[in-house]
Specification:
Layout (H helix, E strand, L loop, with lengths): L2 H30 L8 H22 L24 H5 L9 H7 L6 H24 L9 H13 L4 H35 L4 H18 L7 H18 L3 H19 L4
């Protein structure tokens, strides 16, 4: 199997194993903790930790199938096959040595230009949360009664009955940590893997298909049926941001702002 398919296979298998790890940790914590404390905080915490660990380990393992020093090509690299002209050998070349965080970040474009990415990302995330969610959810309003309440239901259940300290801690996890790990995996690894596989069909097709497919997996991975289309739309925006800027900084900032607006609107009702 060529390197480009190994990269995609690793990403998809890693996604599956990440959710299995998350579910397993959740089940363990529910049996050990919830029996003596009626709180979902620890189950949510370890569910996220299991998911993030799976994402990070998958990204580290996937470095085996990438050409070393690909930071100049970033996420938007049309194909590993176009970098040096020697396709299979370079595409399957393994990265040797220890995987330092700097190496991990360089390979996946996990970089930020603070004075550009933060203001633009925050604005993009806020606008997306305030307008994109409503736009993509609007068709459902004709079929789902009390749609707005049902859309906020999962987030409301997340913080319901929690002490203020735990609401704050959970907010940090959801609004800061989740975007970091999700962008690293979805736009850093998965979107790049789709770009590699579809590169032979031309640049335009490769970009469109990789952004759309990554957004589909991103939306499905949240397991929220009513929020599927808004998350897909936001995933497309994040994918385009990653491709056009050749880094994840703008997308991370937008993702943080997107989550923060939603979480703040829910959490403030519990203080």
């Amino acid at each position: 199997m060529s390197g480009k398919y190994l990269l995609l296979k690793t990403a998809l298998l890693g996604l599956l194993l990440s959710f299995i790890a998350s579910a397993a940790l959740t089940a363990i914590v529910e049996s050990l903790v919830v029996s003596w404390r009626k709180s979902s905080f620890y189950t949510d915490l370890f569910s996220l930790l299991g998911l993030w660990t799976g994402f990070l380990l998958t990204c580290i393992y996937a470095l085996r199938y990438q050409v070393p020093q690909i930071d100049q090509n970033m996420i938007a690299a049309p194909s590993l096959h176009e970098i040096n002209g020697k396709t299979s050998k370079k595409a399957t070349e393994k990265v040797h040595g220890r995987f330092f965080l700097s190496k991990l970040f360089d390979n996946y474009g996990f970089k930020i230009k603070p004075f550009v990415d933060i203001p633009l990302g925050v604005g993009l995330g806020v606008v997306a949360q305030l307008y994109l969610v409503g736009l993509f959810s609007w068709p459902l309003s004709f079929f789902v009664h009390n749609l707005s309440r049902k859309l906020s239901g999962p987030a409301d259940n997340l913080v319901h009955g929690l002490p203020h300290t735990e609401i704050i801690v959970l907010g940090v996890l959801v609004c800061v940590m989740s975007p970091l790990f999700e962008e690293l995996f979805f736009r850093g690894l998965l979107q790049r893997a789709f770009l590699e596989v579809s590169a032979q069909h031309g640049r335009l097709f490769s970009v469109i298909s990789s952004v759309i497919l990554t957004a589909v997996f991103f939306a499905i991975a949240h397991f929220e049926l009513l929020q599927l289309m808004p998350l897909f739309g936001f995933g497309v925006i994040l994918g385009l941001a990653a491709y056009l800027t050749r880094r994840l900084g703008l997308g991370v900032a937008a993702h943080m702002a997107f989550n923060a607006v939603a979480y703040a609107s829910i959490a403030r009702g519990h203080f």
